[in-house]
Amino acid sequence: MEAMLDAAAGEETLLKWDFATSEEARQCLIWEDRPNEVPSYLDAVDNIQNLLKTLTLVPSDRSDSATVDRAQNVLQLAMSRLEEELRNLLEKHGESVDPDWLFDLVSGPSFSSTAEDIASQSSEEEEKSETATSRPVAGLNFLIDMLPPEIVPDLSDIATRMVGAGYKIECCQVYVGIRRAIIQQSLYRLGFEKLSIEEVQKMPWEILEGEIVKWIQGMKVALGVLFPSEQQLCKQVFLDLPSVSEYCFTEIAKGAMMQLLNFGEAIAISRRSSERLFKILDMYETLRDLIPKIESVFFGVACSGLRSEAVDIFIHLGEAACGTFAEFENAVQRETSKDPVPGGAVHPLTRYVTNYMRFLSDYTDTLNQLLGDRSNGALISADDSITESVGFSAEDKSPLSDQIVSLLQLLENNLDGKSKLYKDPALSYLFLMNNYHYIVKKVKDSEVRTLLGDDWIKQHTGKLRQYHNGYQRAAWSKVLLCLKDEGIHIGGSFSSGVSRTVLKERFKSFNAAFEEIHKTQSGWIVSDSQLCTELRISIIEMLLPAYRAFFGRFHNHLDAEKHPERYLKYMPDDLEGYLNDLFEGTSGSMNRRRSFSTA
Questions:
Q1: Does residue 524 contact residue 343 with C-beta atoms inside 8 Å?
Q2: SS3 361
Q3: Closest CA relative to residue 430, chosen from 577, 575, 545, 539
Q4: What is the pTM of this model?
Q5: How far is CA 468 from the centre of its chain?
Q6: Each residue's pLDDT tens digit, 232-273
Q7: Phi, psi of 195 (to 5 degrees)
Q8: SS3 string of 372-436?
Q9: How far apart are CA 165 and CA 42, in angstroms?
Q10: Could you read off the pLDDT of 322-352 as tens digits, one per residue?
């Protein structure tokens, strides 16, 4: 009887807010416009629910049946009102997460980040960077309030009564629909748009690269902040309803999570080209680090498929990385351009491969794991004969170091072939010297040195010396032959007289050979200043003493000639200046001649 009295009193309160019978009910919202009436309205809902429970526990007669029908009708009206109040609270107070505010929580407003671009590094000597369009996400692993804390108890009050009255479906539909849109909008504000696999595969790489950066950011923010915070909100709203909380969170976040995972799958099955490797590795490492988070956030039975999908995509990204690395090695092997680099300079392939190799060393642990898993032959393998031939001992081997040895061997084989494109053997040696010096220097100045070891450096430094010696023989042997004493003395005896005719021809031959070398090799290129200086010094130390001695022994035999400057064109001290013109990449000029004087 008491429950019926309470219900009767509550019925009036509930009908007051019936949309169909009251203009005030249609124009106003209880929680927004009449917050002081909220407790009485909730009590009225509780009274009606208690009445229905009581009536179902006792035998009923016809009058009780009528009471039940009436109570159910009133309760239905109340549920419609609560559904609308729930929708209004969620829509009014629900906002997508502001990315600037979110990142400022982590790093402060002055934080900035950069992204390296291997393409620019391969075309220029110094590494360069460009400003990234994304923001730092390393510290994003915390909870935020997805709704104002003061309205969460109101939402919980409404949700508890709707579910308790058997309106769980209606409650969840409203809640999930609005909160799912908020999560999607939050991802969009972070810069991540929903893209189909076809759209991803058709996208130019320079655009897709930016989308990958946004994907990495979106994954970290979603799993570090958005999803856990949304999960917390679900638990707070459906406080004593864990199964409803889990269901709503799954329905809210699952679509957004699958959207992120589908992008990863699209990248994994896209065309493999060498410039994509490092972004794929970034995605692989991101997903690897976040899989435990995925398993903890999406833990329910309903999410088992999502968890499996995440692991599968992680595996596919790893396979894509290995396949892209293999494609890069094949591309190095297939690069057969027949145009020699002007001046014997460093070949663009050398620059690209060495910079690529340096980037590889930034992913040492990841690549060792991936390449170790693929050691059954998916990649070109550096066999024992190769690794031993380059001074690489078995105990130094790792999957990545093995592959870098193989990669460099492919590059060296390619460079050896390209050196044969030059008709001048001296220029062939200079080309090899330039390129090997560039490779060794890049290895020494990076983490690749740790992967290859000092023995590799020593052996390739030895190769560099061999090419240096080969250059000197090919370029300067003819000049040095002019400075030999053989054939100058009459009768072949050193103590006998000197044949002026032979001597004049010898000086003329020297002058012609030296001028030809100066003209030619001033146009050759040694861009590394240290190598250029060392090379010039070695030539000066080889040529100058020989010429000075020859000049000192024989120049007085030509002093009496009518035009001695025709033969004695260069004083010994002049040669050093001319030799310092070599390898500048410009046409040589002999205008700085010093006239010979008998004085």
A1: yes
A2: helix
A3: 539
A4: 0.81
A5: 38
A6: 999 999 999 999 999 999 999 999 999 999 999 999 999 889
A7: -125, 140
A8: HHCCCCCCCCCCHHHHHHCCCCHHHCCHHHHHHHHHHHHHHHHHHHHHCCCCCHHHHHHHHHHHH
A9: 13
A10: 999 999 999 999 998 999 999 999 999 999 9
